Amino acid sequence: MNPETLHLQAIWAALAVAVIAGAGEWLHARRIARVQALAFGPGGRPRRWTVVAPTLRVIGLTGLAWSLVTLLSFDRLTRERDGRKAPDRNLMVLLDVSPSMLLKDAGESRSDTRNARASAVLKSVLDRVPGDRVRFTAAGFYTETRMLVKECQDRELILHLAGGTPFHITYKPGKTDLLKSLNQAGVIMKDWERKSTTLLVISDGDSVPPTGLNPMPSSVSEVIFAGVGDSSRGTFIDGHLSRQDTANLSQLARRLHGNFYDCNVRQVPSEALKKLNAEDTGSARWRTDRRFIALAILAGGSVVLCLLPLALEYLGSAWRPRPAPLRSLQPRTAP
How far apart are CA 139 and CA 158, in angstroms? Predict the structure, then answer.
């Protein structure tokens, strides 16, 4: 059964039942007309409201046919739709792979590396994202942005990339350029479908200039900055004190109309992932509208078909047959 034509098949089934039921009512009316004196008494006529009984029966049976065909295929239809539906959302992960991510000041004990904490944050996000509808893209940034994985659905591969691999040795040494990396990420995402992408930036922060940040392309609907590393105590590396720069990360989030979360101990809240987890509006409308209508028609048709015979029996005619008087079986005696 083709799911796209299911509603047409339900309509055809309802029309077939309507024709058969109408023919049956016509034959039934002809037979009743022949014995109407026996059925309705000496007057030979039922009460006026009974003229709608044949129509109610036909409508009830037609509604039952349509609703049953619709409901019987409902679950399979939705599964087929979901199975065929291509991923239409993107999660772009922009992962900080600079040497400072190897410092051990992350987590509750402040003994985990920032890389390990970034991996835990990313795993928490991926565990709450429906993988069958989301394409994952990951890029690492240090002095520039480099693509790691593009538009895949293998979340384990994404997690493996965040597992502490020293990608920074492949980059040209220098200072982390977060602003340049964000602009390059925007170029990667510019050709994707409008409002289909959530950008997740996991970093310990970096100082950024007040200008030079390009707006995100129209494909980006949400920007999330997740900070890792201790924000209160710094560690010296490469001649400077490194710690989670919450001020610059939150400022960048505001400039991109996004949100910043300090994830050194906590995770990204589920409210921030609502757009990735939101149900498809088309399927939701199908579920709420057509299924509800079919259930309502099934209930209404069943009630009509169950109560109509009782109403005809007790309210269809004012005439009530009386039992014939019993005659004596004793043989009459001759006077």
Answer: 10
State the CB neighbour count (10 A cutoff) for residue 106.
26
For 273, what's the count of Cα atoms within 13 Å in the CB-facing half-sphere? 20
Question: In this predicted model, what pLDDT tens digit does every residue of 3-27 receive, in sequence order?
Answer: 556 778 888 889 999 999 999 999 9
Mark 142-175 as b/e (b = at least 16 C-beta within 10 Å): bbebeebbeeeeebeebbebbebeebbeebeeee
Element (H, E) at 226: strand 220-227
Fill in the DSSP letter of residue 286: I
Contact by Cβ (8 Å): 144, 184: yes
- Distance between CA atoms of residues 233 and 103, nearest Å: 12
DSSP 8-state code for residue 78: H
Find the angle CA(173)-CA(177)-CA(182) to the nearest 5 degrees: 135
pLDDT tens-digit map of 198-216: 999 999 887 777 788 899 9
* 208 vs 175: CA distance, rounded Å: 11
Whole-model pTM over 0.85: no
Nearest-angstrom CA–CA distance, 164 and 140 = 12
Q: How much is the pLDDT for 331?
A: 62
Identify the residue with better confidence: 289 or 153.
Answer: 153
Query: Among residues 6, 70, 51, which one has the least CA distance to residue 317?
Result: 51
